[in-house]
């Protein structure tokens, strides 16, 4: 019960950003903004971070982006997680596919299995080292946008309230987002009419190197994710939910989990010692626009997915990486606010749309019923996955290194269609060189063949926006201007400093 309402003294000093929600997305957003020098407050209505394993997958591209955050950040995740290279699909008792993540062109040639409570712990501790503490038991109730600020009403567990001004408000407040509701945005999409169970249990009887194993069985799907030692995450569909998508199954018992392993997996598997038994239904929804004026949405507040492919949390964290450098440049007065901030929604909404389509398709394929349909699916899948280029493409898509912004309003190309990467694509990430976008200033990188002095002028003119040294490439015909988040902004003729200058001037 809240105590009698008190009002805290109105905060006069305007903070740059209020982040609502200290889940993985809010914490990533805060860490990125703070390293770029913005003043940030991050609030969460809960008294402590989640103790649940929830999202357990961090893909290669997310590790690359975390690596830009600060020295050793990615290593903290790797030390707390489990590296897994293979995803196997079994059907009719036979293995029909293996996706090998060690083939992906990235320094992180694996998927990291790590529980969400650990992900949040690492991010929250890192943020504290940067000097920002999560303000817990602090709930955003409402806000009002003004010409140059957002006035926010916060309420504390003891009933005290605070009204504070911020330049920007970012709603990272999850699927039931208060910020989204207050903006009046609809969460368009649907709820799949299937019930699912989730069990974190210890399993014996699995041999070989740790791998993600997905079983397509006539009775339904079974997915097994290793979490280290004998602990596994089990996910399985368990029949239809109510017509309004409300789950009817309830949490499973250990006996039910064992039965599913017996039928859909193999008789050798023995489940024991349950850590978490839960159930869920799948929502596939997104907002049309991630921004209204000075208010932004990110993570589950903006899009929710089927857990097939484990893309939800990763996609949300990428929202943060996309928005933070743009907001930093705008706050420093180095760029025009509108085109840069508008591109956040255009880019991230397009990615969420693709993720929703892909994970929705994967879920439907896995849920196919009927003997004929299933045997056709298994046959086609084993043919398609027999092709090495398909397996490689799958690995690149799953690891999110293939994610890009081909239709971004920030892209510019002056020809050179055959020279990759194209505008909007991820610039290659090399282990030997420092990642683009590290440090306390969001800077673009100029990648071109040996410097013959052609770029000296623009390097000086745009010192606030450009890395001070050229990054050499082997392609002597072309240059690339790469954004602080590692995606190509401009492709032009080598030596065309004018194109680079025009691009940066137009920002
Ligand atoms: C059972 C389960 C399994 C999942 N498995 C996977 C998986 O395998 N892979 C994957 O990628 N994703 C998975 N997900 C999804 C993943 O957990 C979410 O995508 C992720 O948590 C989203 O992070 P977020 O920071 O956007 O939101 P959240 O983690 O939901 O955090 C939002 C935070 O905002 C706070 N908040 C809300 N409203 C307010 C307010 N008004 N004021 C202050 N604070 C507020 C909440 O307390 C919460 O801490 C799973 C989810 C569940 C539930």
TrEMBL record:
The FAD-binding domain, residue ranges: 14-358
GO molecular function: FAD binding; oxidoreductase activity, acting on paired donors, with incorporation or reduction of molecular oxygen, NAD(P)H as one donor, and incorporation of one atom of oxygen
CC cofactor: FAD
Pfam family membership, one: FAD_binding_3
InterPro entries, alphabetized: FAD-bd, FAD/NAD-bd_sf, RIFMO-like
Sorted UniProt keywords: FAD, Flavoprotein
Domain of life: Bacteria
Keyword Flavoprotein: yes
Descriptive protein name: 2-polyprenyl-6-methoxyphenol hydroxylase
UniProt source species: Terriglobus roseus
